[in-house]
Amino acid sequence: MSRRKGDGFICLVMEKTYLMTCEQCGGELASFRQGSAQGVKCTRCGWSVVTTNIQGIKVDETKYEVRCHGDYQDKAHIRAVSEVTGSNFLTSRNMLQKGLVLVFVGEAEEVLRVRTILVSAGVVCEITPDFNWV
Ligand SMILES: [Zn+2]
To answer: Has residue 133 been placed in a domain?
Structure first.
């Protein structure tokens, strides 16, 4: 399974949080935070949307580094690294053979996409500094 840029989930949530009036009654929405969940709630009728902490990701300007280690004999792992790095199959396999390897540097949204590709292929990844959007 691979997910590409078109993955609509974040976009959908973002659109909803941009509309700062209630879908149900047109009342004013206020943001709230509860544990790791975050969202908006109508001050009039109590209708709410939970965005699971995703809305702040757009303003997170941290440059994250994604390192991963996988099995260089596992084609799914190689393909995931290839997709993330833009390298060809052989180069990606060589990267995995080296052990923990830096595959991506970028901002939170892209990191989330990259992480999803790697994790869904079964590749273990480490993100520094601490990544709070998962
Ligand atoms: Zn309402």
So the answer is: no
